[in-house]
Amino acid sequence: EVHPSPWHPYTWFIPEYRAFLLGPVNPRIYGRPYRDEVGGPLNWAEAVSGYAGLVAFAGACLALVCVRRRRVRPFLGFASVGLLLAAKFLPFALLIHQVDVLRTLAVARFLGVCTLALAVAAGLGLDRWLRRPRREIGLRLLALGGAAGLSLHGAADAWVVFLWVLIAAAVPVAAWRPRWGAVVLGAALLLDLVPWSHSLLPSGNPGYFFPPLPAFDRLRQEVEADGPWRAVGEDYAVYPSLLAVYGVADIRPHNPLAPMTYLRDLRAAFGFHPTMLRYFAPLNGVGHPFLDFLNVRAVLWESYNPVPAGWPRIDDGSTRMRLYRNPDALPRWFIPTRIDTVEPADLDRWVAALDDGRRIAVFRGIENPPPSVPAAAAVRTLRAEAGRVDLQVEAPGGTVVATSLLQPRGWTARSAGRVLPKLVVNGAFLGVQVPPGSHRIELRFRPPGLAPGVALGGVAMLVCGGLLLRRKAG
Question: Cα–Cα distance between 449 and 290 in angstroms, integer?
């Protein structure tokens, strides 16, 4: 329960969060990251996310008093609002509590963007200072002194004192030679942020985090034999994405950017449906044929749920975690036995009723698959690397190669220099239409937004370069 008082600013915030306000002023305001007990809010990762460096804090204070407000106000305002949100300023906290959509936001994670705004404001303040180092000297010394005093009041660590002495030394140096003043500030910035950022990295034996386990060694052997194959943990056995740490591909995403169509497939087949309330979701019903389509050959098991008939146990029985082989798992690329056309809204029902992993579905009116798939077609793997797959396809009458490769928009398929038409298989996966004959097919992956992103970045660099040259010419 909070009892706010207009005469006590600390009561304007929810107690366990108000320390976020001190994040930008000192690298050790909460202690030494991951060396000391957390002296601030929540955890180390979130507590220190509002820190941009002492040079940035000093520059922002300079900007506050020395730069025309219309230029710096948006950046300082954005950073201030972000800090108030993270610190649970009561008016903001009440608004968030009343609006269901806003309650889903982890506002502390926006502090990284707030530090960017603070850094931009600092750049404006430092630029003003270095361009006119002898003007408004009293006001600037007052701003720097206030910033240093506030910072050292929070934690007067010897290293922090040294950094402030170095920043203070930049004042007379800049008055003598502005460029050398910038060098001193750059040195202070590097001496501050490089050790600080290094302290945020975990240290110690990686085995303490992800210990080597005999069950995982056997699992890796299974998925590498005649592969590549994927694996999964049944029910809650092994959390999603953990297997990747051990070099094993998993089908369960633990990623807020996972394709929704893929999540629809997993939910329809296995009931896999992570939510805000159930952060890690179980994967049940692994006897479903969609597991075969997903190239899952090995399944880790801890629950008492019945094991599908015909699945041999392949571990040595030395641990409670059991390992089973799925004998019907399909390669990551294969020739389907049947192609069904479905409406997009009916995909969930089609997946739930699937009785053969070699059957695939395409969307009616969107894809144009062949009317049938010749039984004589065959596909063989020539090379399989990350983002690069070469296949040899024998298709006397033309065929479709179905895959369990996600993000079909990012894949291209070529044969003898000619681009082959693609299909979206089962709502989320790559399919390729192959003409009659013998073909070497090259599959290559490029993230769909890579080219536009590089182009926009290049345009932005050209614009910035043009503005810089224009400014120098003027």
Answer: 29
Which residues are CB-neighbours of 276 under 8 A, at least 6 positions away? 104
10-residue mean pLDDT series, the chain (474 residues): 66 82 88 83 84 92 78 88 87 83 77 90 87 76 89 88 92 86 92 91 77 87 90 91 90 87 94 86 94 96 92 88 94 93 93 94 81 78 92 89 94 93 94 92 92 92 85 63
b/e per residue, 395-407, with b = 16+ CB within 10 A? beeebbbbbbbbe
What is the DSSP track for 170-188?
Answer: HHHHHHH-HHHHHHHHHHH
Q: Are 109 and 23 in contact (CB under 8 A)?
A: no
* Residue 471 confidence (pLDDT): 65
Structure letter (DSSP) for residue 242: S
Q: Is the dihedral angle over the CA atoms 180, 186, 189, 191 positive or is it negative?
A: negative
Structural class in CATH, domain 357-450: mainly beta
- What pairs with residue 403 in β-bridges? 333
DSSP assigned state of 420: P
Read off the tokens for 243: 């297997």
Domain coordinates in residue numbering, the chain: 9-199, 208-329, 357-450
Pairing of strands 378-385, 388-395: antiparallel
Q: Which of 265, 266, 216 is nearest to 427 (CA)?
A: 265
- Both structure tokens of 95: 């608004």
Exposure string over 50-73, b if 16+ CB within 10 A, otherwise e: bbbbbbbbbbbbbbbebbeeeebe
In Å, how far are 216, 226, 295, 463 from 223, measured between CA atoms?
Answer: 11, 8, 10, 50
Q: Are 291 and 357 contacting, i.e. CB atoms less than 8 angstroms apart?
A: yes
3-state secondary structure (DSSP) of residue 280: coil
What Å distances lie between residue 235 and 108, 287, 305, 458, CA to CA?
A: 32, 12, 9, 47
Q: Give residue for tokens 């590549």.
A: 228
